[in-house]
Amino acid sequence: MNDVQPTATPRLEVRVATTIGAAWHALRDKDVIRQWHAWQTGELEAELDSIYFTDVVEDEATHTLIPNGGDRFELHEDGDGVLVVLTRAPLSGDAEWDAYYDDVTAGWISFLQQLRFALERKPGEARRTLFFGDRSTYSGTVVERLALDGAGEPGSRYTATLAGEPVEGEVWFRSEHQLGVTVDSWGEGLLVVAGTGPSATDPTGTSMALVSTYGLADDAYALLDKRWSQWWAENTGS
C-alpha cells in the first residue's frame, strides 16, 4: 500500500480479500464502520455521523462514496478481492485546518488497514481499542524502541516483547511511516504504529499506537492498558 504522496490529493489504495458487497457494507453500516474506523472514544459516534452520514454523496451502483469533507472512496473488483481506493480532498486553503492535513492522511492509511483486517480476519467481531499519541516522537523511533524494526516483510511471522509482554503474530503491513502487526494473544489483535515524518511544522515527527483487541477478559484488557500506558510514558514525550 502506498504511503503519503507529495501531492495535493494523495491516493491511498489497499487490496482486501473480500467481496465488493461486503466492502460496500463496511462503508455504509455504522455497526461495521465502528469496528475499523479510528478508535473508541466518547466522540466516535459523532465522528462517524459527521463523516459517513452527513452531506454524503454515494452511488451504490458504481460503489463510490464521497463523505463529508470531500475525500472520495472507490471500490473496484480486483480478481478474487476488492481494491479500496481513497483519494484525499484537496487542501482547504485554511492554514489552521491544513496544518493537520498530513496527520489526517496518515490516519486514513491506518484505518484502511484496519478495514482490511476487520473484513479479512474479524468479520462480525467487536473490538476494544487502546490509543496512545505523541507529537514529539517519530513513529519510526517508537518502532525501534518496541524492537519491531527487525520484523520481516508483510505476511511473515515475528516474535517480540511488547511493553513487557512476550508476543507473536504476523507482519500485517508496512509503509514509510507505519508498521502494523497482528498479535495472537490479543485474540488475534492488531497493533498499528503510525505517524508523520519530520517536517517544518513537526521537526521531530509524530507518533501514535493503536491497539485493537478481540474477546479479552476485562482483567486482561485492563492489564494491557496498564502495561502500554506505562511503556508509552517511559518511551515517548507524553
From TrEMBL:
Q: What is this protein called?
A: SRPBCC domain-containing protein
Q: What species does this protein belong to?
A: Lentzea guizhouensis
Organism phylogeny: Bacteria, Bacillati, Actinomycetota, Actinomycetes, Pseudonocardiales
